[in-house]
Amino acid sequence: MARRKKVYEGKAKILYEGPEPGTLIQYFKDDAVAGVNAVNQAPAAVEGKGVLNNRLSEFFMSGLNSIGVPTHFIRRINMREQLVRMCEIIPLEVVVRNFAAGGITSRLGIPEGVALPRPIVEYYYKDDKLGNPLVSEEHIIAFGWANQQDLDDMVALALRVNDFMSGVMMGVGVRLMDFRIEVGRIWEGDFMRLIVADEISPDSCRLWDMRGLDAPDREGQIREPGPLADVYTELARRLGVLPSNVTHTTKPTLIN
């Protein structure tokens, strides 16, 4: 990869120029992004995480493409790299919440784990120095980050991703508490459309384990649902995309 021009480097990924016009190579690093909304918090390395996130993001993005939800994903190149479409990233994190956890519990006093009346979509302005603050549609339109049609399309995209992801996770005994996506603009001639960009992986999801909740533990107590332990490896194993040469244990990364 040293022969290719670096376009951008973030906390968990590096983007290089692609082999064809309009493409990029997305490289997954091992840096963890716990506390991504914390100001000036440096990431720590987690061995093998990049390989697993590459596989997991490929799995989710390919699945979305197959059901007609447009993404930037084209194909996986190797263990750490994938070919993606170049797009203009809208400077927002779009968060979908299905259950109360993280920031919504502290802001609104809703007990953690409570099912929300419906999926709630929130927007966070992408600026690490500001801590990625929660913003309203009024802020977004006033400052020109997106227009009303963009917002309507972003909500529709996010809810379709939520339907797909919730079903996939439920099938492997995992509750999708909440997640975030990034959205990009692409142009096809004079026509602009929005697509799911960046990645979908445990770094951008809050996942709770639902397996074995009815079985008593050694003390005879029924286990309560909670964060999925060893989230990268365990999720990859349950979804059948775990490379045979990756073994490590980490705690899940949660969004605020």
TrEMBL record:
<dbReference type="GO" id="GO:0005524">
    <property type="term" value="F:ATP binding"/>
</dbReference>
<comment type="similarity">
    <text>Belongs to the SAICAR synthetase family.</text>
</comment>
<dbReference type="GO" id="GO:0005829">
    <property type="term" value="C:cytosol"/>
</dbReference>
<keyword id="KW-0067">ATP-binding</keyword>
<dbReference type="InterPro" id="IPR050089">
    <property type="entry name" value="SAICAR_synthetase"/>
</dbReference>
<feature type="domain" description="SAICAR synthetase/ADE2 N-terminal">
    <location>
        <begin position="6"/>
        <end position="213"/>
    </location>
</feature>
<dbReference type="InterPro" id="IPR028923">
    <property type="entry name" value="SAICAR_synt/ADE2_N"/>
</dbReference>
<comment type="pathway">
    <text>Purine metabolism; IMP biosynthesis via de novo pathway; 5-amino-1-(5-phospho-D-ribosyl)imidazole-4-carboxamide from 5-amino-1-(5-phospho-D-ribosyl)imidazole-4-carboxylate: step 1/2.</text>
</comment>
<dbReference type="GO" id="GO:0004639">
    <property type="term" value="F:phosphoribosylaminoimidazolesuccinocarboxamide synthase activity"/>
</dbReference>
<dbReference type="GO" id="GO:0009236">
    <property type="term" value="P:cobalamin biosynthetic process"/>
</dbReference>
<protein>
    <recommendedName>
        <fullName>Phosphoribosylaminoimidazole-succinocarboxamide synthase</fullName>
        <ecNumber>6.3.2.6</ecNumber>
    </recommendedName>
</protein>
<dbReference type="GO" id="GO:0006189">
    <property type="term" value="P:'de novo' IMP biosynthetic process"/>
</dbReference>
<keyword id="KW-0547">Nucleotide-binding</keyword>
<dbReference type="InterPro" id="IPR033934">
    <property type="entry name" value="SAICAR_synt_PurC"/>
</dbReference>
<keyword id="KW-0436">Ligase</keyword>
<dbReference type="Pfam" id="PF01259">
    <property type="entry name" value="SAICAR_synt"/>
</dbReference>
<keyword id="KW-0658">Purine biosynthesis</keyword>
